[in-house]
Amino acid sequence: MSTYLDISQISIEFPTKTGPFKALDKVDLKIARGEFISLIGHSGCGKSTVLNIVAGLYEATEGAVILESKEVNAPGPDRAVVFQHHSLFPWLTVFENVEIAVKQVFKGKKSKAEMRQWVDYNLALVHMSHASHKLPAEISGGMKQRVGIARALAMEPKVLLMDEPFGALDALTRAHLQDALMEIQSELNNTVILITHDVDEAVLLSDRIVMMTNGPAAKVGEILNIDLPRPRDRLALADNPDYNHYRAAVLTFLHQKQAKKPASPPQLSSAEPLTEVKKAVGA
Ligand SMILES: Nc1ncnc2c1ncn2[C@@H]1O[C@H](COP(=O)(O)OP(=O)(O)OP(=O)(O)O)[C@@H](O)[C@H]1O
């Protein structure tokens, strides 16, 4: 595999009131062009921190992020980010929200007419052409996320960074957007890093699932190759033994190998038989 994005041995320490806090310890990940990677791990392990370092929003204390053989340490349009909550400008229409990013990247490289066509093309990719004249307040949460994705794609980033982009949506809308993302990725061959808490989403979308250990000083724990043919169909996969095997492997990692211990052990009382306590802690 030739490496396109190299997250090379990155560590980060945050200064805190009680001293430095080491969130990541030598996280190392080599990503090929066009790969779809999911990052999964318990809350607070450091997934967003990894993404923020790749985005250039945080600076690693050690290690480096190398994209197409060049070190990146500041934000740039070659790495577009889609967050859990949309970040659209409320006073601009759907079209204008995408256009503003297109102008930022392509001013002087595309004509005005070409830029308008490019905005239309990207809105069509996420099936939002019909609402291009609307304001964000006039469309649903799922539609806003679609526009955020169109805006990110329209920048033609080398890497698309997605931080729980569907986390705040209802299950049906999430499923529609996952399907849309799979379609777009098969067409454009984007390199994607997706943070998710949803095991099914990770297995459905990914080429590889990167499972992080619990923090502090989180690392890459295990990497699972998802060798399922594309295009993938969620209904057909439900009965696919390989799909279920991958799902079980992630669940085992999260709930056994990296199980979160309760903050303080439950107190045994004579009224609580041991079996009930075991049930309470999931043992
Ligand atoms: N700017 C900061 N200053 C101090 N500590 C930070 C900072 N940013 C993150 N942390 C700490 O680093 C650790 C990792 O945080 P991060 O947000 O990356 O986790 P996460 O895996 O994305 O969590 P979640 O799944 O809940 O979003 C946490 O303990 C968090 O408190």
Taking the alpha carbons of the first and last residues, their distance comes to 40 Å
Rg estimate, integer Å: 21 Å
How many β-strands, per DSSP? 10
- What is the architecture of the largest domain at the second tier of CATH? 3-Layer(aba) Sandwich
What are the secondary-structure elements, in order, as H or E? Answer: EEEHEEEHHHEHEHEEHHH
CATH topology of the largest domain: Rossmann fold
- Give the low-confidence spans: 269-283
Q: Which CATH C-level class of the largest domain is it?
A: Alpha Beta
Number of domains: 2
What is the helix tally?
Answer: 9
* Proportion in β-strands: 15-25%
* CATH homologous group name of the largest domain: P-loop containing nucleotide triphosphate hydrolases
Keywords: ATP-binding, Cell membrane, Hydrolase, Membrane, Nucleotide-binding, Transport
InterPro entries: AAA+_ATPase, ABC_transporter-like_ATP-bd, ABC_transporter-like_CS, ABC_transporter_ATP-bind, NO3_transporter_ATP-bd-like, P-loop_NTPase
Family: Belongs to the ABC transporter superfamily.
Subcellular location: Cell membrane
